[in-house]
Design goal:
Blueprint (H helix, E strand, L loop, with lengths): L6 H4 L9 H29 L11 E3 L6 H22 L2 H21 L3 H6 L18 H6 L15 H4 L3 H12 L5 H12 L2 H13 L1 H12 L4 H4 L4 H20 L3 H15 L9 H11 L3 H12 L1 H8 L4 H14 L7 H31 L11 H22 L6 H4 L1 H4 L12 H18 E3 L2
Antiparallel strand pairs: 1-2
């Protein structure tokens, strides 16, 4: 019978002692980064109006408020801080996965409802920039896909709203298909994004367990629930994108470590193919996929199945008349026709990182510092065997992908939602931290303050 780890497993030798002062310094530096982004950004926006955001570095506006989700959010936060680490240690694995999904759902729903039902859930995906504005233009899906490129540019006739033009049509088709099966409107769209987006936490746990061991996965579990990024997971389609990408990596981890890689490898390929038709930026998930392959033991056997699955989505969309490369070329032009051509790269290239700090919280900042120390430890092999170093490599790959996205200049602002698919993979770094309850309390406090003081744009 498989032994369920006890508290000694979770708080024992896998967490290296010491480093508390360095953790505090890392968190302080991150806080200063956020403060600088807020102060400098406010000055730039008030004087020149070039940032195009209401509460730099976030899209939103200062509006202290509470709502029906406030009591629920407080209850979830207290419960996870008090009982999350011990339950993560003692629950059997499959019930733990269900508990994490349930906790993530409760947290995302309660945070969304702080803004009220209409403003926080039902109306989020119905604004003038969002996908639901164009549902009636997809009556003939093949014809719309053939004509999709003609409406990307701002000066094109009947140009697409910003989010439709800014993504491949797979993103919009998600909500078109929901409408076709009778789940139309903003309420169903919001419920879908919250419900499916919350499964990303489960996918991350599955991956960490496969590649770095169950102990570290269990330590990460409460942090995957009580994450500030849930503010945006529950209110933007990028939460759905994050879940698809996370499950692609989870299936890939099963393929490269399991005995029967065919089906999991094929499934991973199918989802990877779908991700690039949900968001152009998700091509960077290839960086983390490469890390998963490197950490696996059957990477060569699985590649043909992954490749076969990956080709399905491009084949279908291309056959229906959509040219991914031409659409991306037009999108770059559209990006600079709009806010992307006004927002200064010199500010956003570092202020985006301040947004990331607010998404992942102080615990993740300290965990990343410890993960970096694991990777740079003298004598470290290229493919480490130590679970902590393997986890650090996985997390580091997601951080690298995020930094590449940042340097590209195609993510100036709005990264609190755009980078959700990368941010969820930074959270397992929290498993390196001792004293999880204090760190969890910090995560919860940040999320609650942000959600109650700022009316976010997504």
């Amino acid at each position: 019978m498989k032994r369920t780890p006890d508290r000694t497993d979770l708080h024992g030798p896998r967490v290296r002692p010491g480093g508390t002062a360095a953790d505090a310094c890392a968190v302080a530096a991150a806080a200063l980064l956020v403060l600088a982004a807020a102060l400098i950004g406010t000055h730039l926006q008030n004087r020149y109006g070039v940032l195009r955001v209401g509460w730099p570095p976030l899209v939103g506006e200062w509006m202290p408020h509470a709502g029906p989700g406030t009591p629920a959010a407080l209850v979830v936060a207290v419960a996870v801080v008090a009982y999350g680490p011990s339950l993560a240690a003692r629950l059997p694995w499959r019930p733990l996965l269900l508990a994490v999904w349930g906790g993530a759902l409760a947290w995302a729903w309660s945070l969304a409802l702080v803004d009220g039902w209409q403003r926080g859930v039902a109306g989020r995906l119905t604004t003038r920039h969002e996908y639901l504005q164009v549902i009636d233009r997809f009556h003939d899906i093949p014809a719309t896909l053939r004509d999709f490129h003609a409406h990307i540019l701002i000066d094109a006739p009947d140009n697409w709203p910003a989010h439709v033009a800014g993504h491949p049509p797979g993103a919009t088709l998600t909500f078109v298909l929901l409408d076709r099966i009778g789940l139309g409107g903003g309420a169903w769209a919001g419920a879908f994004v919250i419900t499916v987006g919350s499964t990303a936490a489960v996918a991350v746990l599955v991956t960490v367990r496969r590649l770095a061991g169950e102990d570290l996965a269990r330590r990460a579990a409460p942090f995957l629930v009580l994450v500030p990024a849930a503010i945006w997971t529950g209110t933007s389609a990028d939460g759905w994108f994050a879940a698809v990408a996370a499950w692609a990596l989870a299936l890939l981890s099963l393929a490269v470590t399991g005995r029967r890689p065919a089906w999991t490898g094929l499934g991973a390929g199918l989802l990877f193919g779908l991700t690039v038709y949900l968001s152009y930026g998700l091509t960077l998930m290839a960086v983390t996929a490469a890390a998963v392959l490197l950490l696996g033991t059957r990477r060569l056997r699985v590649l043909p199945f992954v490749a076969a699955g990956f080709l399905v989505a491009p084949a279908v969309f291309t056959a229906l008349g959509f040219d991914w490369w031409e659409a991306y070329r037009l999108l770059v032009t559209r990006y600079y026709q709009g806010a992307g051509g006004v927002r200064p790269y010199g500010y956003w290239v570092w202020a985006n990182l301040a947004c990331t700090v607010l998404m992942v919280g102080p615990a993740t900042v300290a965990g990343l510092r410890r993960g970096g120390a694991e990777l740079w430890r003298p004598g470290r092999a290229a493919v480490p065997r130590d679970p902590a170093a393997r986890l650090a490599l996985l997390v580091g790959s997601a951080l690298l992908a995020l930094l590449v996205a940042d340097l590209s200049g195609m993510s100036k602002a709005e990264t609190e939602r755009i980078w959700l698919p990368f941010a969820v993979w930074l959270l397992p770094a929290c498993s390196f931290l001792p004293g999880p309850r204090g760190w969890l309390a910090g995560q919860a406090a940040l999320a609650l303050l942000l959600n109650h003081l700022v009316l976010t744009g997504w």
